[in-house]
User: Fold this.
Amino acid sequence: MSGILGYGVYIPAYRIKTEEIARVWQDDASSIEGSLHMKEKSVPGNDEDTATISVEAARRAVYHSGIDPKEIGAVYVGSESHPYAVKPTATIVAEAIEAGNDLTAADLEFACKAGTAAIQMAMGLVDSGMIKYGVAVGSDTSQGRPGDALEYTASAGGGAFVIGKRKEEVIAEILKTVSYTSDTPDFWRREGASFPSHGGRFTGDPSYFRHIANATTMLLDATGTTPKDFAYAVFHQPNGKFPLAVAKQLGFTEEQVRPGLITPLIGNTYSGCSLIGLAAVLDIARPGDKILVTSFGSGAGSDSFAIEVTPNIESKRQRLVRVSDAINRNKVYVDYAMYLKHRNSIRKW
Amino acid sequence: MERGVAKTWRSANARYNLTGVQCTNCKTAYFPPRMVCAKCGRDTKMVEKKFSGRGVIYSYTRIFVPPHDFTEEAPYTVAIIRLEEGPLVEGHLVDGKKPEIGASVRAVFRRMYTEGSEGLIHYHFKFEIV
Ligand SMILES: [Zn+2]
Assistant:
């Protein structure tokens, strides 16, 4: 089956601390840090959006893969914060990675799992022989309603993967992917609305836990594996707490999950989230390691992947920008007023 | 309006990817792209040249009174960058580190300006101090 040829992530430089948001709303910062396992989150610059984040991540992925971008046959960008309502982000990305014009492209939306849906679509085209290489991006500049619990986690960032199937180029083979999907109204945003709405406690058991558990169990059954067979497991991470809880429920250990748990450092990057978690694990994985990834998108669905790292991963590492470097480069802390300005919530008169 | 859209579309590769030209005779590189080499005139061929995006700050200035499209962005810094391939290029610096002459930069992809809330979003290279 097809596999990963290269990957890249991009996180904006700005950060706001949990305690700074809590200060404004008179919340107890330590209890929020305790319940969400969140220290700080990323904030986009006022000249950054899903297109710019996607471009930076995709450029790093293409460079890491070592392919000629002219041979890319598909570009898919998954996001719930595309800059235009009508006009694809994917065409901007394709132009900016110099993929030429002989390709197909489209934007996807499925709350936090549009990035893994993009990977599955690229895999389908590669495995069928319709294209040689596909680029799948998941990225977001998500917004929480001011004062809402989501404001502590909704952040900005993205990940991009180059998909292909030539054995000598694949750094991690995708052994199997399955999905579990249902019509579940746990989280939504209507056209033109600035902020999403959510079903409060409904976002837990019937949505996040049910979909991730079902998709992961289906994958384990389909591959004849058990949690012990995997060196690492990455679950969608809307906060720092849910992925550890779902892992425990499914029989994975904290040691398998910790290396890919990035949300406590940067927040929930929505469509970027599972992709950045997978990238963090690939940064340290060794040939032969198996990785399980299960995303979750409200609405709702989960995509689950079984991945096996190949020896090619070592030789490509010199071209890699690691997740830890992408997170820690140039960090700039902002206060709540600057945060509002960055989100265009206050403007000059 | 329509002229603006066409101009935006034609220059996308140069604006997104810092693509200029190079003289095949004397190897001088130019950005923005031009038809004729300043040294060799018309007796040579110009070919497309993709710049690495790496360079150093040659000069910079802080803009407090901006043109109309940049009202929301001001104050901001515009710099002249000496690209490692030779040419001087003007570009905005993204926020972050304090600019200094000679500081190393790399090109990044950012929003330049938007035509109100319903018009086009213009993307462009800017420079980040590394
Ligand atoms: Zn010349």
